[in-house]
Amino acid sequence: MLAIFKKEINQFFSSVTGYVAIILFLLANGLLLFVFPDTSLLDTGYANLDPLFELAPLIYLLLIPAITMRCFADEFKTGTMELLSTKPLSGWQIVMGKFWGSLVIVLISLLPTVVYYFAIRQLSVDNQALDTGGIIGSYIGLVLLGAVFTATGIWSSSLTNNAMVAFLIALFTCFIFYNGFDAISKIPAFSGGADYYLQMAGIKFHYTSISRGVVDSRDIIYFISIIGLMLYLTKLSLQRKLWQNG
């Protein structure tokens, strides 16, 4: 598993594409949070990082599928997946190696945003004005969200040998997970109780809950369950494709 983990990271950063993806993520965050007036942190009138945690999930909808789209698609396209399956590695080791390698790349893209916390803290009149507990909770939520999107992207890449198709499947699935259930719950036909349970089925409900600074075990269990489900589906998909090719 460690070999696949290292290979995934080295492969991502061995091309310009990897650096460009992370730079564009940071550039988009920087422009939205410090330049564009409608979303600028400097124009809110008080010290907070709420715009970052509202915008980052939407940017991750594009970034993470771009990171994961080649994980298995290129392996199938080049024929190296059959070679990989002959190594003394279980299906779970292959899947987990890909997952953790991609997730570390996502975390690397997130790490520089910590600078925003210290920047806003220094710019605020009262250095204690920032809700540090809420910010820590929001970062935990963002890491868990990134893990769900990564697992979904890995699964999408296992379905096809076309990286662009994998990107589109991951983008659509992540969008449904994050915003789809919340949007459906607003349909009048589901008002009166069903809307609340529909919201609970979506990621946005649990991400918003953690972002308040209260790390509820129910939210953690939800994220871990979705991650586990997507990784299990990935393993099944790999077994099916290898059996068909065999």
TrEMBL record:
Pfam families: ABC2_membrane_2. Coiled coil: none annotated. It is found in: Cell membrane. The chain crosses the membrane at residues 12-35, 55-73, 94-120, 132-155, 162-181, 220-238. GO terms for cellular component: plasma membrane. It is a multi-pass membrane protein. InterPro entries: ABC-2_transporter_component, Motility-assoc_ABC_perm_GldF. Keywords: Cell membrane, Membrane, Transmembrane, Transmembrane helix. One of its GO terms (molecular function) is ABC-type transporter activity. It comes from the Bacteria. This is Gliding motility-associated ABC transporter permease subunit GldF. It comes from Chitinophaga eiseniae.
